[in-house]
């Protein structure tokens, strides 16, 4: 199992890490007010985008050329997952909160940071390292 770590950018805030191999980000587009989501898998120290979807096109949210309409969503799965070392996610005053979904639990992204739910600093997501267990020494 991998670790997904969540912290505030440029702040001395304790980082929260959660065991998971994948996660989903969900939000409403600030102009179109329609749904958008991205699914990621953790691979070593990388976050890999494996699927993205939008409910409609417009205002900078065009479906990818390979997107297929599935249950009202334009879903795209890249042939090669896009890998990044971290995501930096600012909030917008024009949308509701971005949600982080782990397994079947979706919560506002900032609610994963105990005591910092009202901060306006961008949130940073990255893959953490598993601590060695006593058996690994």
UniProtKB/TrEMBL annotation:
InterPro entries: DUF1850
Protein name in UniProt: DUF1850 domain-containing protein
């Amino acid at each position: 199992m991998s670790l997904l770590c969540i912290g505030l950018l440029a702040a001395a805030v304790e980082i929260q890490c959660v065991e998971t191999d994948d996660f989903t980000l969900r939000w409403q587009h600030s102009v179109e007010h329609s749904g958008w989501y991205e699914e990621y898998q953790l691979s070593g120290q990388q976050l890999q985008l494996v699927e993205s979807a939008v409910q409609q096109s417009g205002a900078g949210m065009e479906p990818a050329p390979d997107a297929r309409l599935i249950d009202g969503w334009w879903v795209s799965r890249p042939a090669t997952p896009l890998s990044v070392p971290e995501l930096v996610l600012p909030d917008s005053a024009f949308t509701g909160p971005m949600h982080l979904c782990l397994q079947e639990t979706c919560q506002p992204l900032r609610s994963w940071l105990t005591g910092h739910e009202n901060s306006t600093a961008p949130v940073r997501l990255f893959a953490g390292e598993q601590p060695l267990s006593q058996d690994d020494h």
